[in-house]
Specification:
binds zinc ion; 2 domains; alpha+beta; 10 helices; about 40% helix; about 375 residues
Length: about 375
């Protein structure tokens, strides 16, 4: 049995633990050694581990029954539900090198040629559709304001595409460690044979990105990137904007076809061919994005990503899976609903929980924040949870 209670180390007179020496928790000692700094923490959690064992009847004091031993372990304080802090530290290396390695400053999958071509194709097709709609507007196919709306939607879709492609989807760093709760619940954890790192639950190793990705949904060749915990928001936004673009242009073309049938409504032959080709393109984009949106919605509602779902279907273990919906704040962040439609990085209330791993550096920053909040008389920020 494990009981955890809060203990103020600064005022306790009975405690034998000090800020230096053997009384310090192992994790804290490791953190200090890693960052080379000493932090005067005033608050810890105290865990009492009670173990009940049968007495040995053949030795002195035996005779059957049970004996209980209690050991006390000092543990770093962990945040209560509702508390959060915003970590503004940038863990990325300050370098202009492109790649998916830990040493690269800008995340970009440059090794996959097919993915690069497909991602470029998305930009070309979107630009082509915007030019076609603009030409139709110029030749008075429909009011200019409708063409401007379409161009704006295209621009948003392309911004989301760029953000999805160039955002680290949640690659697991070499310094990753299991979270405090994971360590308590299960002392053994899986490792990735290729990355030689801790492999968080729900993560997968992507052979194209050559990294383990947290809560990996799939590797999307149209994005030329993995879709994972950190860029799922941008991917969903891209799907929504592209779906809107496709259905909006189909409505525009239909409107133009039915309401522009008099003699004064003639178009250049090039525009007519462009519109015909774009109609097929929009139907394909509409169907594809519709199926992908349903796929993503299913993933959010069940917490089972595309890869996991395919694996479970292949092994016929779909009915045995634990379905736990993913909260929208774990995808779109807690920075307010006004930030949701834009491809800005989401702020998570508990980054480690969303990613499925911690790093010693981040644990240390969190501890510093909690210490600072405790010394200010507060308990961290009260968040929207
Ligand atoms: Zn891996
Ligand atoms: Zn990948």
């Amino acid at each position: 049995m494990v009981t955890i209670s809060k203990k103020d180390m600064g005022t306790s007179s009975s405690s034998s633990a000090t800020n230096s020496g053997a009384g310090r928790p192992l994790l804290r000692t490791c953190l200090d050694a890693l960052c080379g700094c000493q932090i005067d923490s005033s608050e810890y959690l105290e865990a009492r581990v009670c173990q009940t064992a049968a007495k040995d009847p053949w030795h002195a004091g035996g005779g059957g029954g049970t004996t209980t031993t209690t050991t006390t372990t000092m543990m770093p304080r962990i945040r209560s539900p509702g508390e959060y802090y915003i970590d503004i530290h940038n863990d990325e290396p300050w370098s202009f090198s492109l790649g998916t390695g830990e040493e690269n400053g800008i995340w970009m999958n440059s090794g996959d040629q097919a993915g690069s071509i497909m991602a470029t194709l998305v930009w070309l097709l979107m630009t082509y559709s915007a030019v076609t709609v603009t030409l139709l507007t110029i030749t008075k196919g429909f009011p200019p304001v409708l063409g401007m709306i379409y161009t704006l939607l295209c621009a948003m879709a392309l911004a989301c595409h760029a953000k999805t492609s160039l955002t680290d989807p949640g690659s697991v760093p070499r310094a990753a460690v299991p979270q405090e709760e994971q360590r308590r619940e299960n002392p053994s954890h899986s490792m990735c044979g290729q990355c030689q790192t801790f492999k968080p639950p729900m993560s997968h190793h992507c052979r194209i990105c050559n990294r383990c990705v947290s809560r990996m949904d799939h590797h999307c060749p149209w994005m030329n990137n993995c879709v994972g915990a950190a860029n799922l928001k941008h991917f969903i936004l891209f799907l929504i904007y592209t779906w809107t673009c496709a259905s909006y242009s189909l409505v525009l073309f239909g409107w133009n076809y039915f309401f522009c049938a008099d003699e004064g409504c003639t178009f250049h032959v090039v525009v007519i061919h462009l519109v015909r080709a774009m109609t097929f393109l929009c139907i394909g984009a509409f169907l594809f994005t519709s199926s992908m949106l349903m796929n993503v919605t299913y993933g959010l509602m069940t917490g089972i990503g595309t890869i996991d779902r395919l694996k479970k279907k292949a092994t016929n273990t779909m009915s045995q899976s634990d379905e736990e919906p993913i909260a929208l704040k774990d995808v779109f962040g807690i920075a307010g609903i006004l930030t949701w439609p834009f491809p800005v990085d989401p702020i998570f209330d508990d980054y480690d929980r969303v990613m499925g791993y911690s790093t010693p550096q981040r644990l240390l920053r969190e501890q510093q924040f909690m210490d600072q909040a405790a010394s200010n008389g507060g308990q961290g920020q009260q968040g929207i949870v």
